[in-house]
Amino acid sequence: MTDSESLEKSRIFLELGPRPEEHGRLVRPDARASYPEDVLTRLRAEAAKIIARYPDSRSALLSLLHLVQSEDSCITPAGLDFCSDRLGLSGAEVAAVATFYSMYRREPTGEYFVGVCTNALCAVMGGDAILAALKDHLDVDNGGTTPDGKVTLEHIECNAACDYAPVVMVNWEFYDNQTPESARTLVDSLRTGDTLAPTRGAPLCTFRETARVLAGFPDERPGASAAAGSGGEATLRGLRVAHERGMSAPAVPAAPTAPAQPDQPPADSTKDKAAPAPSATVPPDSTAPPNSAAGKGD
User: Fold this and answer.
1) Cβ neighbours of residue 179 closer than 8 Å, sequence gap 6 or more
2) Among 127, 22, 165, 106, residue whose Cα is nearest residue 135
3) CA 126 – CA 168 distance, rounded (Å)
4) How many contiguous H segments (helices) and E segments (strands) does the chain have?
5) 186: left (phi over 0), alpha (psi -120 to 50) or beta
6) Is 7 helix (H, G, I), strand (E, B) or coil?
C-alpha cells in the first residue's frame, strides 16, 4: 500500500451543520414573519400577565416561547421577534433558548404531538418497535406530520415514567405500557376524533392548548385540575411497601445556627473592585501524617 493510499484510508469525514434527522429551522419560506395587529394586541396583553410574575422580565422567556408556540404550533420568526421585543433581548438570545429545548418545535406541529420514548428502558421494553410501527402505520418519518395535520410523530427523551415502560406521550400526557398494536389504535383514535383517555393525568387537549397551559395560563376545562394530581400504582408501590413494613427515612439532624453576619457581598464579587489574587501558598493535605513533607506548609 502506497503512502497516498494509506492516507486516504485514514481520513475521517465530518459532516457539519444540522443532522439529517433534525427537522426544520426557525427561518423558513413558509414561516410566519409577523403578526396581524389584532393578534399582536392580544399577545401583548397575555405577555404582560406572564412577565408580571417575575422580578426580572427575562426570566419569563420560557413561558413566552410557549405562548407564541400556542399561536403558531411552533416557533416562528414572528414569535422570536415578539419575545425579544417584550423582554428587551436580542434575537440571538431568544433563538438560542428556543433551539436548545426540544419542547419548542421548529416546524408546524399537528393537533396531536405523539412522542415515543426510545431511551434505554423504554427501548428495550419495546419503544423502538413502537416507533417503527407508527412510522409505517402513519407513513411519516421521525418528526413528520400526517397529511391531515392531525398527528406529528417523533421519538422523545426520557419523561421519568420508566416504571410504565414503554411509554407514549400525546401532547405530554401519558399512555403507559404500550405495544405496537395499542399505539396504532391510539393514533387511529386521534385521527378520527374518538380520542382515548390518557392512562393518568389530565384529559387530552390539543397541542396548542397544551402550549398555552405550559405558558402559565390555567387549564379551565372541567375536571382538568383534579385529574392531574397523584402518581400511579407502579410509582407508589415502593412507598406502600415501606409503610407496610414500618420503614421511614432517618431523621435529618438540625443544622447548626451560624452567627449573624453583616449583610455584605463576598470579597470576590464586591462591585467595582478587582477579585483577590490567588493564594501563594498551598493548604496542607489533611490526610497526610503530621511529620510528612505533604503535611507541612511552605
Assistant:
1) 126, 130
2) 127
3) 11
4) 10, 4
5) alpha
6) helix
**DSSP SS3 for 153:** strand
Is the distance from CB of 26 to CB of 106 less than 8 angstroms? Answer: yes
Q: List all residues 6 or more positions away from 283 whose beta carbon is below 8 Å from its beta carbon.
A: none
The model's pTM is 0.72
Per-residue pLDDT tens for 196-231? 889 988 889 999 999 999 999 988 877 676 655 556
Q: Are 142 and 153 in contact (CB under 8 A)?
A: yes
Mean pLDDT of each 10-residue bin along the chain, 298 residues long: 68 62 69 94 97 95 97 95 96 94 92 95 94 96 92 92 93 95 96 90 91 92 64 80 89 77 58 60 52 47
Q: Nine-digit cell at 165?
A: 415502560
- Assign domain 16-108 to its CATH superfamily: NADH-quinone oxidoreductase subunit E (1.10.10.1590)
Q: Can you give the residue ranges of every domain in the chain?
A: 16-108, 112-206
